[in-house]
Amino acid sequence: MNEASLSPNHVFIRAILICTICALFGSVSVQPVKADAAPPPDPTVGGVGPYQPQKTNVQMMSETVFIDVPQSPSNIQEPKQIKVKASFTMRNQGQMEERMQVIFPLTRLGYGEQSLYEVEISSFGVKVDGQHVTTSEITTPPEVGDYAEVRWVAFEVTFPVQQDITLQVEYEMLNEYGKYGEGFTGIAYILETGAGWFGNILSAEISLRLPYPVVEEAIKSANPGYLIAGNEMRWNLTDFEPIREDNLEVKVIHADYWTSILDLRSKVKQNPNDAVAWASLGDKYFDLINRREGYIFEVDRHFTELGIEARQQAVKLSPESSDAHYKLAEILWLSNPSVINKFRMGGESTAPEPSLDDPAIQEILQEMQSARFLGSTNDLPYFNKVFPNVIVSTNGIITVTPTQTLAAFATSTTLPTVTPTVIALPSSTPVTFPIETSSSVNLGNLVLIALGLIIVGGIYFYSRKTKLRF
Predict the structure, then answer these.
(1) How far apart (Å, rounded) are the C-alpha atoms in residues 101 and 83?
(2) E strand or H helix at 188, and its extent?
């Protein structure tokens, strides 16, 4: 059918479908993954559907997984690998010997899993009852709603009746979080593929070793039920059949970030008047606020409060520093609830719009006045989108439209601990300027109107030509 003959409703519905599909692809999360061994795909499914395991009487009696996160710089191009060792004890509970091609995922399984799963088949080492075996690679179709095939490493195993067979797998994963400098290391282990075996998994022990002593403060997120022992987090599971929601996902502060935070904490404790150390500590805390490409994903309240305190101390110790004033304004701005809700990724915002009458916003603008007066040219993220007609000039003057009013700046602060010290400005009262209409503005409007008329005319003549009804 010629697209020109479609009705407006058909065109509109097609546009909605295209936008919906794009939105679904854009929602794929970013988490590194590792996974259990699984039975081979059901041969009756073939290439017409996503992975479904072959029926088997082989049961996973136990599994032991050890994940080792090495210490490596956070800003190198090729981060050091996370090493994984997994051992599975399998038993054929049936009445006949089974010989099959056991598979292990090289890429994510389905929609919503990790798209940055970077594993080369050459990194795998596989043993069956202590003997190395050769491997091959197979693929299965993508899950519904996904677009990429799933790649697996495969190896032949024979399972005699009522006899334990041990499978051992070793491989390496790239630390993608450290690679992209987000201040975190992401680790995951997929348990769901173990559900393809007969019955329940009787026991599973998962150990995650970090390059520093584990403390709750350094754990961004993790599956519940873990125990901490030195540098390790441990999970013990018994008699379970895993589903996708059981997959292990852990996010911890990257080793270099955490080490530098501890070092800076030690410096400011030994010398509370070290303005440089306080400023650096504030920057480290600020890096742990989760932001990317014009959105605020979330704000860690604990590190945000610590960051505000550190940057307040930097302003107090260096009131003549434009950078100190700007950075204090920056963290106050990005942690303001109304700003967070306006630019957060996903969900509907019920918080009020940022307002110039808000004392917290006034405090931010006061810090920006100080920064401008001292020579800073930095702009607050998203500020021009929130207040397009408000300008903080190099003279510390705020300009607003006649329809907006700016209350006098608050002289006190409601911040957690320390009141920032602000040097005296030429004028502490914001100046209001009317916005004059210029010829360039009128010209721009005329151009827009002309373009609009041209577009309307084009649509009219096109509709007449194709006999499209409106």
Answers:
(1) 24
(2) strand 184-189
Query: For 305-362, how does the pLDDT look when each residue is reduced to its tens digit (9 = 90+)?
Result: 999 999 999 999 999 999 999 999 999 999 998 888 877 655 455 667 888 889 999 9
CB 194 within 8 A of CB 242: yes
Specify whether the CB–CB gap between 149 and 108 falls below 8 A: no
What's the CATH number of domain 31-252, 1.10.3720.10, 3.40.190.10, 3.10.300.10, 2.60.40.3680? 2.60.40.3680
pTM: 0.70
What distance lies between CA 182 and its chain's CA centroid?
Answer: 9
Architecture label for domain 271-399: Alpha Horseshoe (1.25)
* DSSP states along 5-36: GS-HHHHHHHHHHHHHHHHHHHT-------B-
The contacts of residue 184 (CB under 8 Å, 6+ apart) are 177, 220, 251, 252, 253, 254, 257, 288
Which amino acid would we find at residue 161?
V
Cβ atoms of residues 313 and 271 within 8 Å: no
> Taking phi first (over 0 means left), then psi (-120 to 50 degrees means alpha), and beta for anything else, what does residue 365 get?
alpha
- The vertex-349 CA angle with 345 and 355, nearest 5°, equals 110
